[in-house]
């Protein structure tokens, strides 16, 4: 059985605290690989600032229905890859996750959010 999200996920930007997802609304996915791969620019102002490449993801939170998010903003479809990036709907910090090209499912990058 897959592991369900046991905490809520909130925005990692100090002072924002916006709830992105509530407990139970995501499942751990340790095998997804993004095609084509993408680079996720550093998250400004957060403690984990490093740029990430999708090949570095060890596990992701899989969200099967985008209506399950509390607060999330979608970017336009990115030219080239066709993916959409996800950002905090309140402070617009991102990317905190992505929606792969041509897929309904969304993924949150655990390093880019706070679990509490
Ligand atoms: Zn935020």
From TrEMBL:
<dbReference type="GO" id="GO:0007264">
    <property type="term" value="P:small GTPase-mediated signal transduction"/>
</dbReference>
<dbReference type="GO" id="GO:0008270">
    <property type="term" value="F:zinc ion binding"/>
</dbReference>
<dbReference type="GO" id="GO:0005829">
    <property type="term" value="C:cytosol"/>
</dbReference>
<dbReference type="GO" id="GO:0006892">
    <property type="term" value="P:post-Golgi vesicle-mediated transport"/>
</dbReference>
<keyword id="KW-0653">Protein transport</keyword>
<protein>
    <recommendedName>
        <fullName>Mss4-like protein</fullName>
    </recommendedName>
</protein>
<keyword id="KW-0813">Transport</keyword>
<dbReference type="GO" id="GO:0015031">
    <property type="term" value="P:protein transport"/>
</dbReference>
<dbReference type="InterPro" id="IPR011323">
    <property type="entry name" value="Mss4/transl-control_tumour"/>
</dbReference>
<dbReference type="GO" id="GO:0016020">
    <property type="term" value="C:membrane"/>
</dbReference>
<dbReference type="InterPro" id="IPR011057">
    <property type="entry name" value="Mss4-like_sf"/>
</dbReference>
<dbReference type="Pfam" id="PF04421">
    <property type="entry name" value="Mss4"/>
</dbReference>
<dbReference type="GO" id="GO:0005085">
    <property type="term" value="F:guanyl-nucleotide exchange factor activity"/>
</dbReference>
<keyword id="KW-0344">Guanine-nucleotide releasing factor</keyword>
<dbReference type="InterPro" id="IPR007515">
    <property type="entry name" value="Mss4"/>
</dbReference>
């Amino acid at each position: 059985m897959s592991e369900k999200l046991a905490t809520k996920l909130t925005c990692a930007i100090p002072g924002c605290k916006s709830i992105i997802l509530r407990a139970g609304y995501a499942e751990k996915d340790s095998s997804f690989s993004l095609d084509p791969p993408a680079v996720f620019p550093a998250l400004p102002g957060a403690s984990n600032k490093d740029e990430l490449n999708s090949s570095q993801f060890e596990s992701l939170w899989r969200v099967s229905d985008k209506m399950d998010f509390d607060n999330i903003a979608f970017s336009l479809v990115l030219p080239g890859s066709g993916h959409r990036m996800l950002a905090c709907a309140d402070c617009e910090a991102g990317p905190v996750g992505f929606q792969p090209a041509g897929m309904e499912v969304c993924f949150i990058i655990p390093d880019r959010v706070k679990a509490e």
